[in-house]
Amino acid sequence: MMESLSPIAAGALGSLAAGLMTAVDAAPMLVVKRPGQQTQSVLLGFAAGVMLAASFFSLIMPGVEVLQTGGASRGWAAGTMAAAVLIGATVIGLMNRFAPVDMLAIGPAQSKHLARRIWLFIIAITLHNFPEGAAVGVSFGGGDLHQGLATTLGIGIQNMPEGLAVSAAMASLGYGRIAAFAAALASGLVEPVGGLIGASVVGALPGALPWGLGLAAGAMIYVVTAEIIPETRERSTGDGSMIGLMVGLVGMMFLDIALG
Predict the structure, then answer these.
(1) 3-state class of 124 per DSSP?
(2) Labelling 29: which of 38, 80, 136, 145 has CA 20 to 30 A away?
(3) Which of 249, 100, 130 is closest to 195 using CA atoms?
(4) C-alpha dist (Å) from residue 251 to 61, 138, 184
């Protein structure tokens, strides 16, 4: 079936399939009861670890690989990704400081400070899914169906713990099961948009994808280290949040490396 589709259509469908995988690990949130504060801290720590690993292994390293495949030297590729990461972190940091982000303090949570932090985190996760969708679209846009399917499978499996991260973050705000699941699903549905654009511009702007990957990585690293990790340490009475962080980081690192 996929063989009969144009590269753009195949890229859009592939990125949709990868994006829908965010709902798989979020599905348990539909049946479990609302977690207590200590469990919330562990889940948020897990989410932070997942996103730290994703920043490096799903975004930065693939960006370097794309640049080197395009003919860039190792030093130039490293410098380009470093600049993109710094710009992404700077933009989200400036937004956090100067933009009216207090409007993000929405939800049932009693702490508006916590709500603002977690909504920044969810936005960063959603932002990072856009260039991942574009990566799927680009892999199909090159006309290699097998490469496109492999990229779809890899990113789709990596999206599974990210869906759990989003749903856990929503649950920590006090949202119900359906809302937490819906947020995880919605965060993945930006990938078809990225896939459609990525497949469309693969010939016109071949250098845009690494910058998108780096910008998203910088934004996520900033939010996780400046907002989420401090919050989990404040709320946790033991080492549960750090254990969750390490499990999430190592688990996501394993998936990224094993799946290439």
Answers:
(1) helix
(2) 136
(3) 130
(4) 17, 26, 19
Would you give the distance in Å from CA 235 to the centre of its chain? 24
Find the Cα–Cα–Cα–Cα dihedral 117, 120, 124, 130, rounded to 10°.
150
Tell whether the torsion through CA atoms of 194, 199, 203 and 209 is positive or negative: positive
Q: Which of 17, 33, 52 is nearest to 162 (CA)?
A: 52
- Tell the burial category of 188 from Cβ atoms under 10 Å away from its Cβ (0-12, 13-18, 19+): buried
**Cα separation, 24 vs 243, whole angstroms:** 23
**HSE of 39 in the Cβ direction (CA atoms, 13 Å)?**
8
| Length of the chain (residues) | 260
Chain centre distance of CA 82 = 18
User: How many other CB atoms sit within 10 Å of the CB of residue 95?
Assistant: 15
Supply 163's token pair. Answer: 């869906």
* Tokens 């940091």 sit on residue: 93
DSSP annotation of 54: I
Span 50-62, pLDDT tens digits? 878 888 888 898 8
Domain boundaries, the chain: 7-30+38-259
119, 225 in Cβ contact below 8 A?
A: no
Q: Which pTM value belongs to this model?
A: 0.71
Nearest to 246 by CA among 42, 61, 55, 58: 42
DSSP state of 143: T
Q: Beta-carbon neighbour count of residue 237 at 10 Å?
A: 9
